[in-house]
Amino acid sequence: MADPKKLKAAVKEGGKKGVELKGCFEMGGMEFFTTKIDAADGDMDLLVAAMDAANKEPDPGEEEPKGGSGMVGKMLLSSNDDAVVCVCYVPENCVEKTTAEDWMKATLAGPNGDMNGELLEGTKTFAKGIVKANAEAGRFTMKDRDFAQTASVNYLVSKKLFEIKEEDDWVPDDDAGIEW
Questions:
Q1: Going along the chain, which residue ranges are E strands?
Q2: Which tens digit of pLDDT belongs to each residue from 73-92?
Q3: Cα–Cα distance between 39 and 93 in angstroms, integer?
């Protein structure tokens, strides 16, 4: 059983991420996203609780809205000194684009295919995985969490489910009133 304070913090962070993701979806139609949940501290149960909080229907009576991003596919990542844990959710109406299991497998492989994470559970709509630290092999969780995030985004880009926009090299016209 998770520490009640840690559970509350993970649920709060997950709920806030849910609001952010819902807003991004409503503004630009983003359907898939990868992010980290620091409050879960590498604990799978806390990360699942954060995912549940992100997906829950918001209570209109709440002063501060939480959740509401059930329409967004998401990969949540968290780490501690021992492991990187990953939880993936894909809405039922998006499984023709990707499944949670396929997305998780790509994430656990890492950007170079050498991360060797373990798929713990995988269906079309939900998956869990873990990448254990291995200091002897030079694998450390802080680095692996970043690698997992990169692999997750790379997978989405390869499926054309996420677009990385290049920086705009805008230069103002001479008559724009900007002095260098």
A1: 32-36, 73-79, 83-89, 118-122, 126-132
A2: 999 999 999 999 999 999 99
A3: 29
